[in-house]
Specification:
By secondary structure, the protein is mainly α. The chain has 2 domains: 1-201, Growth Hormone, Chain: A; 223-433, Growth Hormone, Chain: A (Up-down Bundle). It has helices at residues 12-43, 48-63, 68-74, 84-101, 110-138, 141-169, 175-194, 212-230, 234-243, 255-263, 268-296, 298-323, 341-371, 378-407, 409-420, 437-442, 500-511, 514-520. Helix 1 packs across helix 10. It is globular, with a radius of gyration of 22 Å. Residues 508-531 have a biased composition (Low complexity). This is MFS transporter. Residues 497-507 have a biased composition (Basic and acidic residues).
C-alpha cells in the first residue's frame, strides 16, 4: 500500500506548518556550524584566529544571496515546480556537503573543511531565496503576518537544535556522528514536506524569460534600482554607512564567546544550557524591544539598546583583566590555571544579559531600515541593507579572531564596544520621511507594509505584507537572517507570476495620481503574488510588528 502524504500548501494550517519546517532547515546548519562546530574546534586546539575566519566564511553567502534571485526566477522545472525544484536540489546538496565534511579533520585540514562548509552555506542561502519566492507565490495576504512569525520561530528552533541540541547529543555519541543527525533532520523535511508539495503551475503567459541574458538584465536592474534608492534621500544614504558598521557590541554573539566558554572549562552540556537560556532571552527581548520602539520612537530606543549591549561587554572585559585571564590559553598545557567561581558566574550572567539587550534592538533596527526605505523600491533597497548587515557579521568575526590572538580578550572586548558605538553619531541623520512618522507615533502597522529580512545566518533574522522584501533569516539577522527573491526585477513591472488582472490592479494606484502613490504604491515590490490591497487614506512608511521580525542568520544562538 502506497503512503500518500498531504500537500501542505493546500490548507492554511498546512502552509504555516510547511514554512515553519522549511525554515528549520535554514536554522539547523547555522546552529551546527557557528555554535557546535566552533566550540569543538576550540576544544580540539584550534586557535581563535582560525576559528574567526571559519565563522566569518559562514555569513558571506548570506551577504550576497541576492545574486541568486535572478537565477531562481529564470531557471525552473515544469516537472518539479519552479521554486520547489530549487528547494529540493539545495536541500539534497546540503545533506551531501554535511556527509562530505564529516570525515575531514577540521583542525589539520581547515582549508578544505571550510571550503565544504562554505559551499554548504551557499546552498542554504540559495534555498532561502527559493523558499521566500515560494512563500510570496502561495501565501494569501491575510496569512502572511502569521507565516512571518512561524518562519522566524522555525529558524530559531533549527538553530537551537543544531547548536545546543548537538552539544547535548555529543555527550552520548561521538561528535562526528552528529553530522548525520543534522543531515538526517534536513532529509526528513525534504522527504515529508518538500516532495509532497504541489506548487501552483505557471501559465505560459506568466513564465519569466529564460536564459543568461534575462539574468544579466535583472541583476543590472537590481544594481540600478539600489543606487537610485540609496541616493534618493539623506536618510537612505546615511543608512548605507550605518548598515556597514556594527550596531553595538558583537563579540558575545560570535566565536569569541564560544571560544572563551571552552577555555573557561565549560563542558558541551553546560555550553548547551547557556545557549538555550540565551536563545529564550533573545526571543522575548525582540518582542519587548519592538513594543518599546513603537511607543517611544525607533531611533531613541535603538540608540539606548545599542549602548546597553556595550555594558555587559565592558563588564566582562574588566572582570577578565582583574582575573588575569587575558590571552587565549592552550587547553592541553600542564598546570593550566582554573577560573574562579566569580569569573564563571560573571561570564554566564553577562552572556544572558547581553542577549537580552541585543534582542531588544534587533527588530528595532530592521524596522528603522523599513522606515527609510523608498516604497517603490522596497524589495531592492531593503534586501541590500540586510546584505550589508550580514557582511558586518562576517568581517567582525574575522577581525576579532585575530585581535584576540594579538591583544587578548579584554582589549578585544573593549575595542568591540568602542567600534559598536560609532553608529550612534549617524543615527540622528536617519530621520524617516515625514510620511513614515504618523504610523510609528500611533504604534500601528503601515499601509505600505512589506515583509522583513530573517542567518542566520547575522548571520545571519518575513511575510508581513504582499511585497517581496526579505523573509528573514537569518536566519543568514537567524537569524538572518530572508532576502527577496524577485528584487532584481524592474520595480515598475508586476511579477511574472502575477496574473493579468493583478497586474492591472498593481498599476491602478499610479493612475490615481500623487495621492494614490503616496498612500502606498503597490509597484513598490516587484514580484508580488496576489492582488494589491487598497491603501488607507493616511500614508505611512513600511513597518512590521516586531514579534515577526527575523534577523539575518543571527550570530546569537
Amino acid at each position: 500500500m502506497r503512503l500518500r502524504l498531504p500537500d501542505l500548501l493546500a490548507t492554511r494550517k498546512g502552509r504555516l506548518a510547511a514554512f515553519f519546517l522549511l525554515y528549520v532547515t535554514e536554522g539547523l546548519p547555522l546552529g551546527f556550524t557557528a555554535i557546535a562546530l566552533a566550540a569543538q574546534m576550540r576544544r580540539g586546539g584550534m586557535g581563535p584566529a582560525a576559528i574567526g575566519v571559519f565563522v566569518a566564511s559562514l555569513y558571506l553567502p548570506w551577504a550576497f544571496k541576492w545574486v541568486a534571485g535572478p537565477f531562481v526566477d529564470v531557471f525552473s522545472s515544469d516537472r518539479w515546480g519552479r521554486r520547489r525544484a530549487w528547494i529540493l536540489a539545495t536541500q539534497l546538496g546540503m545533506v551531501a556537503t554535511l556527509v562530505a565534511a564529516m570525515p575531514i579533520d577540521y583542525v589539520g585540514r581547515i582549508g578544505l573543511f571550510t571550503a565544504i562548509v562554505l559551499l554548504h552555506n551557499v546552498l542554504c542561502a540559495v534555498q532561502d531565496v527559493a523558499i521566500d519566492a515560494l512563500a510570496v507565490r502561495v501565501l494569501p495576504p491575510a496569512e502572511r503576518g502569521a507565516a512571518n512569525g512561524f518562519m522566524y520561530a522555525g529558524a530559531s528552533v533549527g538553530q537551537a537544535i543544531g547548536g545546543a541540541g548537538v552539544l547535548l547529543l555529543s555527550a552520548w555519541m561521538p561528535f562526528q556522528a552528529t553530522y548525520l543527525v543534522v543531515a538526517g533532520a534536513i532529509l526528513l523535511i525534504t522527504l515529508f514536506v518538500v516532495l509532497p508539495l504541489k506548487e501552483p503551475p505557471l501559465v505560459p503567459a506568466e513564465a519569466a524569460p529564460a536564459g543568461l541574458v534575462s539574468v544579466r538584465r535583472r541583476l543590472g536592474a537590481f544594481v540600478g534600482d539600489a543606487w537610485r534608492a540609496f541616493t534618493g534621500s539623506r536618510a537612505a544614504a546615511v543608512g548605507v554607512v550605518v548598515a556597514l558598521l556594527p550596531a553595538g557590541a558583537y563579540a558575545l554573539s560570535l566565536a569569541l564567546q564560544s571560544n572563551l566558554a571552552v577555555e573557561l572549562g565549560f563542558s558541551n552540556s553546560e555550553l548547551a544550557h547557556l545557549t538555550l537560556a540565551s536563545t529564550v532571552a533573545f526571543g522575548l527581548a525582540c518582542v519587548v524591544g519592538g513594543w518599546l520602539s513603537d511607543r517611544f520612537g525607533r531611533r531613541r530606543m535603538l540608540a539606548l539598546f545599542i549602548v546597553l549591549t556595550v555594558l555587559p561587554t565592558l563588564w566582562l572585559a574588566w572582570t577578565l583583566w582583574r582575573a588575569g585571564w587575558v590571552v587565549p590559553l592552550d587547553l592541553h598545557i600542564a598546570n593550566r590555571p582554573q577560573p574562579s567561581g566569580k569569573l564563571l558566574l560573571t561570564f554566564w550572567t553577562v552572556t544572558v544579559v547581553y542577549n537580552v539587550f541585543q534582542g531588544l534592538y534587533y527588530g528595532v533596527r530592521s524596522a528603522l531600515y523599513m522606515d527609510i526605505t523608498t516604497p517603490r523600491v522596497a524589495a531592492t533597497q531593503f534586501t541590500a541593507y540586510m546584505a550589508m548587515l550580514n557582511l558586518v557579521i562576517s568581517y567582525t568575526a574575522w577581525w576579532q579572531g585575530h585581535a584576540v590572538v594579538r591583544w587578548g580578550y579584554p582589549v578585544t572586548l573593549a575595542l568591540d564596544a568602542a567600534v559598536g558605538l560609532l553608529c550612534l553619531f549617524l543615527l540622528p541623520l536617519m530621520k524617516p520621511p515625514a510620511a513614515a512618522e504618523p504610523a510609528v507615533a500611533a504604534g500601528r502597522p503601515s499601509d505600505a507594509t512589506f515583509a522583513p529580512e530573517t542567518p542566520m545566518p547575522h548571520g545571519d533574522e518575513p511575510l508581513a505584507a504582499p511585497t517581496g522584501a526579505a523573509f528573514a533569516g537569518a536566519a543568514p539577522q537567524t537569524s538572518g537572517t530572508l532576502a527577496p527573491v524577485d528584487a532584481p526585477a524592474r520595480i515598475d513591472q508586476p511579477d511574472a507570476e502575477t496574473s493579468h488582472a493583478d497586474a492591472e490592479a498593481a498599476r491602478a494606484p499610479e493612475s490615481a495620481g500623487p495621492a494614490g502613490a503616496a498612500a502606498g504604491d503597490p509597484a513598490a515590490s516587484p514580484g508580488r503574488a496576489g492582488p494589491v490591497q487598497p491603501a488607507a487614506a493616511e500614508p505611512s512608511a513600511p513597518t512590521v510588528p516586531a514579534a515577526g521580525l527575523s534577523r539575518p542568520p543571527p550570530p546569537t544562538p
